[in-house]
Structure formats: C-alpha cells, structure tokens
C-alpha cells in the first residue's frame, strides 16, 4: 500500500504543474475558438490519463484508489478551465458543436475504445456534457422568447405573394436562360436594364438569380424554429427536447397566425390563408423527422375552491371560534385545499388543428366566391319554397310570378356564373401552385372546392328540371356536370 501511495504522490507533484501549464497554454492558443479549446483540452487530458494508467500498471498489478484520485484531480483542472468558457457561450450552434465533440468524439469514439483506462476522464466529460446541455437549453429558451415569440416582421417578410412571384420568375429564368454575364470572349456582357443581373454559381456552374434557396423563402420564425430544433435534437435528452420543442412549435404557430392576420389586412384573405397553409404544411412535414412527442404535461393549482372557502369563512364569523365540528376555520382548511390540475399541451396536434381550420376556411370562402351568383339565386328559391309550404301554394305557380325566376333572368345568372368561373379559376390555380408548389397537395385542396361548385350547379339543375317547362329549360341552358367540370378543369381531369 505504501509503494503505490508514495508513487502516486510523487507523480502528482510532478504532473500537476505540467498539466496546469499545458491547459493554460491551450487556452491562450485557441483564444475565442471554444470548440478548438474543448477538443484540444480533452485530447490532451485523455492522453495524460491513458499514459498514467498504463505507467501505473507497469509497476503495480492491483488497482489503486489513489491513482483514480490523481487522475480525477488532473481532469478537474481541465473542467475548471472549460466550465467558465462553456457557460459564457451564447451561440446555440457553438454549444451544439461542443456537445457533439464531448459526446461523440470523446465518450463514444475514445472512451468506449479504451474502457477502464479513461473511466475517470469519462466521469468528468459527462459532467461537462451536462453543463453544455443546461446552457444549450437555457439559450434555446431565450432564443424562443426573443427570436420567435418576440419576432416583429419586416414589411418584406409579409410581402406575399410578391416574394413568391419573384422567386418563381427567377427560377423559371434560370431554367430556361443558359446565358451567363460573360460573353464568349470572356468579357462582361452589357446587361439588359430590364433584367436583374445574373450571378455565376459557386464552382463555375451557371446559375441565375433564381436558383433560389427555398428555405430562404420560409417565414423567418419557421426557419428559426426548425434550425433551433435541429441543433437541440441530438444534443439533449429526449424528455427535455420534447418540452423545448413543444414551446418552440407553439410560439411558431402563434407567430404564423399573427403574420397571417397582418397579410390579411393589406392583401386578399386568400393570400393570407394560403400563406398560413403553406407554412403549417412545412412545419408538419419537417417535424415528422423528429422521433419525439411534441407534448408536455403541465401541472398547476386550481385556487377556485380556496377562494370559495375563504368567502364562506367570512360569512361564518360567528362560528370561527366554535369548539364543535362546525368550526369555520376547520371547514376552511378542509374545503379550501387547492386542486392539482394536469394540462396536456400537444403542439403537433395544434399544428394539425390549425391546418385543418385554415383549410376549411379557405375552401369555404373560395367555394362561396365561385358560386356567389348561383347561391344568391338558390337562396331566393328557398324563400319561395318556404312560402309555398307555409301558405300551401303550388311552388311552380309562385315561381312563375317571380321576376327573378323567369327563364331569361335565370339564364343571365347562369351566364354570369360561367364568366365568373372562367375568370377566377385560372388565378386560383396559379395561386395554389405558387404557394404550395406540390401538385398532390394542390389537388387535395382543390377537390372539395370543385365538389362544392358541382353540388351547387346540381341543386340548380334539379330545380330547373322539376319546375320549368322544356322550352324554359332550353332558354335557361343550365350546364351539365361535365360542362362544369370542364370549366374547373385541372390537368388531371382532362
């Protein structure tokens, strides 16, 4: 026992100053490069621990607690140097990289290979990982509050659909125009003042302004939320990530709703709704890659019973000092205990509910717009039907007395409806393509609109068939379902 103790004591006297000086030299060398300092410092200490472990067992065959104490002391000298650096890092990207260095490069790749030789080093590294994770969660929560919840959109962030139109035109130009800003002689060509300048792509490939990064077209809070979650996902525990992710996603949805309302004030409601649909679809698609539940259970106290009991206490002043079982204070303490309430928050379901709600609203408004003349006519028919039922009159007789129900007037409504469809469907199709940029999604959203228009025409067609003569039906010229489908024609319908 004396020999290992004496040996370890002498090694400690010899190593401690050298290790301390080496760590200080690394700190000065790396300066503001926190990742480089963590990587170099851990590599340095892992080699020291490994060498000392092997050297000890070169002389002794039995493990010693004194050796572990020495190695722990040396490792904590690195920890004491790195911890102040870690807790002052503000950038999540840097914290995520430091966490990756410690978890993957040190614990997984180095410690697992060397096993017992680096057991003490592993304990200290795990403690550093916990410090980094705590700092990362703290900075993430600050980031969510300041850059997502507190985000104030600039006018350009709300410039929809203008942003998408410019991007689409630029993309089309890049795909169809192979010319670069240089002519064959290698000199710069004279730019067309009506066109935006083209920039060469990195690596020499030609590319116009269009080659637009579609991620850059996402609303800033969506981009920031997904970036934040991607940094956290592999760095912190799953349960902790779920809580932070739920908060981030919830705040992102709120920011999108605010942006939607702002766009709706200055643009068409269709643009605002498509903006929200577009970004909620992006969120739903992107968070599917995270194999976690975006939900948390929040515990809170319900003080309603306490308030009621306190009010009752004031009403029972005469029994406050009663010595029986009906003592007012005793009743207050028994009845006024607050209840613990569990609230389950699920941001993934919130995204789905918001998406469902805005899609239904969009479909309803667009359908009403496309069918406005026919629905106005049908509502007038409904009044006649109710009146006929109430007064026990023949529907046909009442209809023939109404100027709006004459064959010529109904024909005018049919013509107006046809013109409306021909004028509004193409821009609607273009907007769906512009915002969603996914043919399958466009068809899913357009299908119930198409069904609503067909149903409205079918309702009118039934009335015309039932209450109008053959001659009047010919004058009205109510379109068939196939003809309406052609007016609504999608490429896949043709």
Protein architecture, described:
By secondary structure, the chain is mainly alpha-helical. It has 18 helices and two strands. It has helices at 2-30, 34-59, 65-86, 92-114, 119-149, 162-176, 220-233, 238-266, 269-287, 304-315, 328-335, 347-370, 372-391, 395-401, 407-436, 439-467, 470-476, 481-487; strands spanning 295-302, 339-346. It has a two-stranded antiparallel ribbon with strand order 1-2.
**Head-to-tail CA distance between termini:** 92 Å
Biggest sheet layout: 2 strands, antiparallel
**How many strand segments?**
2
Mean pLDDT across the residues is 83
Order of helices and strands: HHHHHHHHHEHHEHHHHHHH
Amount of beta strand: under 5%
Count the helices. How many?
18
Radius of gyration over C-alpha positions, nearest whole angstrom: 36 Å
- SS content category: mainly alpha
Residue stretches low in confidence (pLDDT < 50, at least 5 long) are 180-211
Overall 3D form: elongated
Can you list the strand order of the major beta sheet? 1-2
* Helix proportion range: over 70%
List the helices and strands and how they pair.
Elements: H1 2-30, H2 34-59, H3 65-86, H4 92-114, H5 119-149, H6 162-176, H7 220-233, H8 238-266, H9 269-287, E1 295-302, H10 304-315, H11 328-335, E2 339-346, H12 347-370, H13 372-391, H14 395-401, H15 407-436, H16 439-467, H17 470-476, H18 481-487
């Amino acid at each position: 026992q004396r020999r290992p103790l004496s040996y370890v004591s002498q090694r400690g006297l010899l190593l401690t100053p050298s290790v301390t000086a080496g760590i200080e030299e690394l700190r000065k060398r790396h300066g503001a490069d926190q990742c480089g300092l963590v990587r170099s410092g851990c590599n340095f200490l892992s080699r020291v621990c490994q060498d000392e472990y092997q050297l000890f067992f070169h002389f002794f065959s039995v493990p010693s607690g004194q050796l572990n104490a020495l190695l722990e002391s040396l490792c904590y000298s690195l920890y004491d140097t790195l911890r102040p650096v870690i807790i002052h890092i503000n950038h999540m990207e840097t914290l995520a990289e430091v966490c990756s260095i410690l978890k993957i490069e040190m614990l997984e790749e180095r410690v697992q290979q060397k096993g017992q030789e680096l057991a003490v080093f592993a304990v200290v590294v795990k403690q550093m990982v916990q410090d980094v994770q705590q700092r990362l969660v703290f900075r993430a929560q600050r980031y969510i509050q300041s850059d997502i919840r507190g985000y104030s959109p600039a006018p350009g962030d709300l410039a929809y659909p203008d942003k998408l139109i410019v991007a689409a035109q630029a993309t089309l130009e890049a795909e169809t125009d192979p010319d670069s800003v240089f002519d064959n002689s290698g000199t710069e060509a004279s730019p067309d003042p009506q066109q935006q300048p083209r920039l060469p792509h990195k690596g020499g490939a030609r590319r116009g302004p269009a080659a637009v990064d579609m991620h850059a077209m996402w609303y800033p809070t969506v981009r920031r939320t997904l970036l934040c979650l991607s940094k956290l996902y592999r760095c912190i525990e799953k349960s902790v990530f779920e809580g932070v992710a739920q908060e981030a996603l919830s705040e992102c949805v709120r920011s999108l709703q605010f942006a939607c309302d702002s766009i709706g004030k200055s643009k068409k409601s269709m643009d605002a709704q498509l903006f929200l649909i577009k970004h909620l679809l992006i969120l739903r698609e992107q968070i599917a890659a995270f194999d976690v539940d975006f939900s948390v259970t929040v515990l809170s106290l319900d003080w309603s019973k306490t308030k009621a009991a306190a009010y009752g206490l004031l009403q029972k002043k005469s029994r406050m000092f009663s010595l029986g079982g009906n003592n007012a204070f005793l009743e207050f303490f028994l009845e006024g205990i607050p209840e613990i309430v569990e609230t389950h928050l699920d941001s993934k379901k919130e995204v789905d509910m918001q998406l469902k709600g805005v899609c239904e609203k969009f479909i309803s408004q667009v359908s009403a717009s496309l069918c406005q003349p026919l629905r106005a006519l049908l509502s007038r028919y409904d009044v006649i039907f109710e009146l006929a039922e109430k007064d026990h009159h023949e529907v046909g007789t009442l209809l023939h007395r109404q100027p709006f129900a004459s064959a010529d007037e109904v024909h005018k409504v049919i013509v107006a409806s046809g013109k409306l469809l021909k004028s509004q469907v193409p821009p609607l199709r273009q907007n769906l393509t512009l915002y969603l940029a996914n043919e399958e999604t466009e068809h899913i959203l357009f299908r119930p609109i198409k069904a609503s228009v067909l149903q409205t025409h079918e309702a009118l067609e039934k009335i015309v068939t039932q209450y109008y003569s053959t001659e009047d039906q010919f004058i009205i010229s109510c379109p068939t379902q196939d003809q309406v489908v052609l007016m609504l024609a999608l490429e896949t319908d043709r």
